[in-house]
User: Fold these one by one.
Assistant:
Number 1:
Amino acid sequence: MSKAASDTLEKVSGEFEAEVLAGLEAGRSETLAKIEAVRKETAEAVAKILETGEKQAESVKRQIIGAAELDARNAQLRSLERAVNEAFELATRQVSSESGPSQEKALTSLIQEGVDVIGSRAKLKCATKDRRAVSSAIRKFGSKAKLSLDDEEIDTMGGVVLTTPDGSVRFDNTFEARLERMRPTLRKEVATILTGAP
């Protein structure tokens, strides 16, 4: 082979090698760029997934805490309501077991409230156990009021029901009725006493 052919072959071989190496380098650079782009996309996707997961975890945590706080508050309210009801029952039993002068004084006060509401002419009804004390209380009113004790008894722990002679107005001043009228205020007071809150 001649020197010229050998030089030409070497030159063509060198150019081919340079082209192949340049192509390989370009492919390598392109591949590295693609790998870097995929790495960035993956990192961004992972970061987004983690952020979403953290937000969801925080949301679930807030829901769990909120539900637990609500359950605790409801349990506290149920306990408080039971305690308030027990206090009402105890007070009602104590009031209904009164007898003698204190019972007569209480009934006189209840009758006076009724007279103030419906007027000085009224029929009174009471429980059988209170008839003697109510009769005595009626006598204390004397001529200031025209009150009469009805023969019909009522089922109550204590107190009286007053009606106008024609029956058009009725004022229930039994212990149970008074308790129901005062229940919201008393509930608040008893709850304050039981919880120690101002």
Note: The chain has a mean pLDDT of 85.
Number 2:
Amino acid sequence: MRRLRLWQDRIETEVEVSGRGPPLVYLHGPWGLALRAAYCLLALAITLLGIALYRGSIGPRRSAAAPLLFTVSALGLATVAIGDSWLPEATPLLAPFIHGLAANTAFLCASVGMLLQAWYLRREPGWQSAAGLLWGWAWLAFVLLWLHVLWRGGPPRGLGQKVVIVVIVGWLLYLALALYRRSRRAAAC
């Protein structure tokens, strides 16, 4: 019970010091429902992309590691979206903890999955041209994530997080587009 009270005191102090609520407040604004739905759709898309990449791999580096990391990332993202729809009212002290754990899982698994997938694509036939860009882009996302986590004096927390999200989503979109183009070329042959 004492730990629960300490957690509540920490949340109340954060609200008093920062002048804003816990980090999950943005999911409850006027666009909160649309953002939570977009998170769930993104989670589904990440999982499907990982499965498609695994099924389409024929090279020596075919592995289920990256698709599994993408799936765990997607579960974390969906937990953020779904949990923030009812958890803050049902368990206001537990909601920030679950949000933080799920968000950290989503970010970490996505960035490591990106690195692994880009590394695998370097040996995949037909992917060499895109693999170099994807490899550098994945490292950029990984470094930005750790800068966001460790550099407390850096840009505002929300801005740093949004930059990391944009880099990760951009990487996923580029990879999905490259996979689509590759599948179209294969179908034409």
Note: The mean pLDDT is 84.
Number 3:
Amino acid sequence: MLRLAPFVLVLAACGGGDAASSGVDSSKKLTELNATERQQLCEYMVEVEGGANTSKMCGDGVTITVKSATDCTSTFSQFEASCTATVANAEACADAAGEDLCNLVGSSSCAFLFQCL
């Protein structure tokens, strides 16, 4: 089972993209977020992607399951120091995944996940 969401954060798949944004400065790099900002972003992502433990079978034995916001925040420590992804990148990925969790592995909006982790 592939546990990509949120951030593999991701990001966090959040139920349909109803919220406009996480409220965190969209230009901030993910590697620069403080604990409060990480939590806020992760809560947004989990909501947009359908809630913690939401799962989808994507074929070829791949199942993507949305992590909890707590699990998501712990993922930040796994980011490479060279990661340049921003909050805007993470929100765009969550929005793409909100329509279909399988987008976490196929959407260009989520490509940063594989560059940062």
Note: The first strand starts at residue 2 and ends at 5.
Number 4:
Amino acid sequence: MPSSKITITGSYENDSYAIGNAINNLADGKVAEIKEITLDPYKSSTVFNDTRCSSSSLVHLAPSTANSAALTGVYVITTNGSFEVFYSQSSETDLKFKYIIFN
């Protein structure tokens, strides 16, 4: 059975500030969590609210369907508390992407 322990090694093992910051980030949900979104059909952008997002975040998208993989012109603009995905208009309703936010 896999272990659920977190091991801190190297220069951080005695750094109480770094350890506290890591624990606070876990408590605030600021960890690498993969979620899924669906883009609005017949539009050229969709806004998604996510409190983990900031203007300096990087949002990585991975297509979950063949139609989303075929979509062109996909890019993301981030702001504090949300991000907007821009894309070429499509009438497909299964434009699903998995995403992860890097801060």
Note: Residues 32-102 form one domain.
